UniProtKB/TrEMBL annotation:
It comes from the Bacteria. This is Uncharacterized protein.
Length: 236
């Protein structure tokens, strides 16, 4: 799978490039202890830092970064981003724009609020048959916004930017959303629909199920040691 990112030639030296999600694990996860005391169990138990599916989901795909610092004060958004005028007609220069509340009428996540739009400074092209799934950075409830998920057929739509709408969920937030902050986590997904097959366990699957459950309960790290696939490195 190849993901090709392109940008306006005048902005090439001014943009933060999208980066592998595995390089952007948050500080709170890195600082989390691997074990913590549970009053219910009466002993130390493993935290989600030792849960491969939790961490692998956060580390999967690529992150789209915020191109510059955004200052938020009293509900207002401002920035000081000195970049050249793009050479390409119709290309944005501001990092943010907005969607009126009417565009999200009755959507429960909007709650009647207008939405931000993180403007795109990169086009994204995928190989034939693949689409780009963009969603809020996984397990990142620490961010003061919630991205609205979307699916784009980026094997066909790749000559225009993909913008990323989001709802600002912390109205009392004051400070700076830093340049490079992940605003969207993106995965390439096959567009072909899966074939769904439903079967009851046969004897072999019953035995396999019982063995896996017993192994998981008997020792830690069974999934990590015996089932977790090795992740390939992203290349550029």
């Amino acid at each position: 799978m190849r993901m090709t990112f392109r940008c306006d030639p005048r902005l090439a030296d001014h943009l933060v490039r999208p980066y592998p999600a595995r390089t952007a694990l948050p500080d709170w996860l890195r600082a989390m202890p691997t074990k913590a005391h549970s009053d219910i169990h009466g002993r130390d138990i493993r935290t989600v830092k030792q849960c491969p599916p939790f961490v692998d989901a956060m580390a999967y795909g690529i992150m789209i970064p915020l191109p510059c610092d955004i200052r938020i004060e009293a509900g207002g958004f401002s920035w000081d981003w000195d970049i050249p005028e793009p050479e390409t007609a119709g290309h944005p220069r501001a990092p943010l724009s907005f969607h009126p509340a009417a565009q999200f009428a009755a959507a429960p996540f909007a709650n009647g609020r207008s939405a931000l739009k993180f403007n795109s400074f990169w086009t994204i092209e995928l190989e034939p048959g693949w689409s780009l799934f963009a969603t809020h950075p996984v397990n990142r409830d620490d961010l003061p916004f919630r991205l609205v998920s979307g699916l784009v057929d980026a094997d066909r739509f790749h000559d225009g930017g993909i913008n990323f709408p989001a709802v600002w969920i912390k109205p009392d937030f004051s400070g700076v959303l830093a340049k490079g902050t992940p605003i969207a986590q993106c995965f390439a997904v096959p567009r072909q629909a899966p074939e769904l097959v439903f079967e009851p366990f046969d004897e072999a699957h019953q035995q396999a199920y019982a063995k896996v459950v017993a192994d998981v309960l008997a020792a830690p790290n069974v999934y990590r040691k015996h089932f977790r696939a090795k992740r390939g490195r992203l290349t550029s």
